[in-house]
Each structure stands twice: as structure tokens, then as C-alpha cells.
Amino acid sequence: MNSTQLLGDAMFIFVNKTVMIPVNMVITILGILNNIVTIVVFIRLASTDTMTISLTALAVSDLLFFCLTLPNFIISALVSSGIQVLWSVDLKSLQYIGFVWQRPLFHKISITITMFVSCERSLCVVKPFLVKRIFTRRRVIAVLVAIFFSLTALFMPVYVSGGLVKEQTINGTHSVLTMNLAPERALAEQIVHLGSGFSLVVASQIIIVISTIVMAEGLRRHQRFRKGASSTDQRLQKKRTELDLQALSDTDNCRNRVVPIAVGSKDNPGVPVVSGDSHTKVKAFKTDQKGVAKNPSITNSYQRSEELSRQQKDCDKKDVRKKEVQTSMPILNDPSSKEHRLIKTVFTLAVMHVVLNSPVLIHYIYYYIEPEFRVNLRLGNLYLLSTDIAASLHCLNGPPDISVGDSNIFSEHELTLPSTDMPQALRRNDIISNLFSSLNECDLRKDYIGNYRSQKTFTAIEGLIG
């Protein structure tokens, strides 16, 4: 290193050796294990959902980033300790050519995929059926492949403008692989910094913030709609209770009803045999000498017995029906706390992304402002330290990036927010009917939907389903 470094070699080595290298080694190892587990889980799910595909690609990109970060910090530890493992290779040259510019490639790929996932999630909250039509499985795979290849092509000027060549040592005893940079190397680095560095980081910050605002606003609308649904459900619950009481009353009346049989017994044919409650007043029928009732509505005991049996069966059916109504009616809980937690989670993840990527943005801004902020120049050590800090923050930002696009985060809202996996042929009326398909009573379902149509909350349904 140059002796005129603003951050001296001794200070740079001390900071690297005591702080950066141990912390980054731990973060990198945990990041590798975390992304391996994530990829295995997604593979075992065997899901063809577009969000699962995007999150798998994000986990693969982060895993490659961590795999390239680990040897970079190992080499830094060896250089800081003064250990020369490979006498035929200059470790600093190997670090710069082999790992310094490979890590930013997968860092930028992860940022781009995160932007893509964030846009899809925010649009899923606002226009769920539009998302299903736009983000098809084939299109998502094509976009992810295009992201990988386009960013790799953007980094190619840096990769082809430098390499390792053999040079003889000063005493001439053996040759060493050292760094060899082309004259166009500085221009290639500026192109890559401008195309994939500053512009991409700024765009990611803006898009993530806008997507978060749109998502939060959609969730707030959803929360207001759910509150309206809860108040309407209370009226439905009250009506259901009234119907249950009425059914119970009908059943009791049916069981206590007296059915007179105007046919005398064998011993006393003139006395009517009465079936029913003994406490109920019975009006006796006049009979002739043969014991046959003069009432024309009752012809014989057999027919009247059938009538009694039919009434008893009707009562039993009402009992069964009442139990079905009680078990089939949905009882919705107040979901306001779930919405609050979801909004806070989304907001927290977005803030983490912005905060952890802000030092990277400052790094690129200072790179363009200060010409000395380069390797082997006056601010070379500060440049390398800033690069390591930015890489460490990206390691911390990996798990939140995956959480931002977690498709299960919206599973609590499938009652009022239609899932993106529902068929496209469903129309508004079909969606509304699907929301209340668990209601078995047709009259109650019609009344429930009618209440929604008569309220302002129906506007929220129209907005949610597009």
C-alpha cells in the first residue's frame, strides 16, 4: 500500500483484523446456512407459484454472494496476519481479481430481484387478479433469467480488463501470479459503477419505498373493509340467534302438541283415547255407538297415527337443521390486530432495506465525487473498508429481502382478499358469493350480501377485486 494513505496500513489492518473479519465471518457462515435451508424448503414445497420461484432465485443469488464473500474475508485474514499460504500467488491480487468484483454482481442481482418481488407483492394487495394475469410462471422465469444475464453482461468490461499474470520475483528465484490491469480498466469500472451501482441502488430505494406505501395503503383499505364486515356479521349473528330460538320454539310446540284420536277403546268405545300432554285441555269428540268419531277430518286411528309420526319426524328434522345452522355459520373474529401487525411488519422490512442500503449509496456517491477514492490511491484503504462494510450490511439485509416477498404473509386475508391462485373466470358476483359460500341458509346469505351492497363497504370490495 502507498505510504500516503489517509487511513494508514497499520490502522486498516487493525480494524480489519479485530472488527471486520471476525464479524463478517460469522455473518457469512450464518448467511450460507440460512440460504441453503431456504432453498431446500422451497424445493421440498415443489410449488410452481410465481412468488416461490422468485424467492428461490433470490436465495440462490444471496447464497452465491455469501460463497464469494467467505474466501474474500479468509484472504483478508491471511493478509492481515502476514501469512503467505501460496508462495506462487499474490493474495491481494487474487482477492481483487477473483472476489472483489464478483460479489457486487450477485449483490446487484439480489437488489433487482427484491425490487421485482416488492412490486409484485404491492400489486397483489391492490389488484390481485391483475397480478395473476401479468405475473405468469413463464413470464416470471423469463424476467429472472434476463436479470441474471443482463447484469452479468454489464459486469463483463471489468472481468475482461483484468487478470493474473506470472511475474518474476525481485531475486528471480521463482515466478508469482500477480494482478495485471488493462489501460481501459478505470473506464470499465466507471461504467459498471454508473450502470449497476449508483443508478440501481437509487432505483431500488425509490421503488421499495413506493411499493411499501402502496402496500400499506392497500392494507389500510382492507382493514376498513374488514371492520365493516365485522359489524355486518354481528347483525347476521343476531338474526341467526333469533332463527335458532324460533326453531327451538317450534320444536317444543310440536312435541307438546295434543293429537286427539276420536276412536274409543275396546272396553269403553264411547270414551276417546287421547295422545299428548296430560296437562293440556282436550276437547272430546262425540262418537256414535261404534266408537267412530263424527269429525270428518279424522277417519280412522291408522291415519291419525301416521299424522302423529309425520309431525314427530318434522320435529326431528328441525332439530337436525338447527344444529347444522349452528355449526355451519362462520364466526369472524375482529382482524384489526392482524392488519396492524402486517402493516408494521411490511413497514419495518422496508425501513431495514433502506437503512442497510444507504451506506452503499453513500459509497457510490463518494466514489464519483472523490477521484482518490480508488484502490492503490490515497483513499484506497478507506475504499476497501467501505466496500467490506457495504458487503456486511448486504449480508444482514438478505433475510429481510426474502421476508418482503413472503407469500404466506397475506394468508390471513383470504376471506375478503381473493387469492391470486383463484381462476380468472370468476367475476365480481362469483367472488362475493364465494366469500359467503359457507353460509348454508339461502335467505341469510342473500340478506348478508344485500347488507354489503347497501353499505359503503361494497365499494371496498369493488376496489379490492378490480
UniProtKB/TrEMBL annotation:
InterPro entries reported for this sequence: GPCR_Rhodpsn, GPCR_Rhodpsn_7TM
Molecular-function GO terms, alphabetical: G protein-coupled receptor activity
Record has Transcription regulation as a keyword: no
Disordered: annotated span: 293-322
Pfam families cross-referenced by the UniProt entry: 7tm_1 (PF00001)
Bilayer disposition of the protein: Multi-pass membrane protein
Protein name: G-protein coupled receptors family 1 profile domain-containing protein
PROSITE patterns per the UniProt record, alphabetical: G_PROTEIN_RECEP_F1_2
